[in-house]
Amino acid sequence: MTSLSPQPSPEPSRPSSPGPSRPSSPRPSPRSSPPSSLSRIRIGSAPDSWGVWFPDDPQQVPWQRFLDEVAASGYEWIELGPYGYLPTDPAVLAEETARRGLTVSAGTVFTGLHRGPAVWDSTWAHVSAIAELTRAMGAEHLVVIPSFWRDDKTGAVLEDRTLTPTQWRSLTAQTERLAHEVRERYGLRIVVHPHADTHIDSEENVTRFLDATDSSLVSLCLDTGHYAYCGGDSVKLIETYGERIGYLHLKQVDPLVLAEVRAGEVPFGPAVARGVMCEPPSGVPALEPVLAAAQKLDVDLFAIVEQDMYPCPPDKPLPIAQRTRAFLRSCGA
Q: What percent of the chain has pLDDT over 90?
């Protein structure tokens, strides 16, 4: 998923209804599962797997088609995707998701908190609108994606790829502030998403970020594809920082395309257009050991499938989604 410009919003107010509640465990699949079922893992998908990166784009499928097809693929959980793609009226969205048997797991926000206190007001305006909708839909998580250091379409360098010590302090302090405000005002937990072409990407930067933030406030959304893209080992991260893993994105990288991307220093957007993110189980990391490591944490975790495919033909996502869901069932999820 790519980045979006912050959108202003008035100070939020609590909705009269808390929205749909989240069940304590996934509903059983009508298909058979291996004996050691991944009972703590809740599988879902997202607009990203339908080639959706923006609130409105002629290359993207209409939101109604996304909802129809994600339900037809056997998923019961979805993310909101870029704010404004799905209806932002909670009543409308609740009706549209409920009649398809879908429940929202999280919203997504985009931040540049390393830039210091000057960006707080614009960041909060963007976050508050999405947090309001997320809570109204009964979800409990807000996925936080850091800003890109280079443009994911043009490749233009926007800022230095390495943060200064001052910028690191701003990033960690303001992320904790965001986590506190989101928890206090909306009852949501933020999960920070390490992402290619951002400052939270490699094992070194991810662990530095975790070590510098309060574990009671800040958790990770571990995206297996982005972490592999940046050279990280998802199983190792789960085993080492298990208490900080609050959410999963399931994704795989084509190692041959990744090698070309690295050699050519290709930005993330064009890399996606080349097919760097591929259909499971044809890429890396292997998802079975990732899911097994997550199950051993003995906590309920969402595992949301995201195969970056922007742009893509409108008929491409559905069969991939159906095959991916069948593959994850074969893994016990």
A: 87
| Other CB atoms within 10 A of residue 216 CB | 10
Q: What is the mean pLDDT of residues 306-331?
A: 97
Cβ burial 61-79 (10 Å sphere, 16+ → b, else e): bebeebbebbbebbbbbbb
**138/52 Cα distance (integer angstroms):** 23
Amino acid 37: pLDDT: 81
Peptide bond into 12 cis (omega under 30): no
pTM: 0.89
Nearest to 272 by CA among 310, 306, 305: 310
The answer to whether residues 283 and 253 touch, using CB atoms and an 8 Å cutoff, is: yes
Q: What is the 8-class DSSP label of residue 196?
A: T
320: amino acid identity, one letter? I
C-alpha 206/C-alpha 281 separation (Å) is 25
**How far apart, in whole angstroms, are the C-alpha atoms of residue 39 and residue 26?**
8
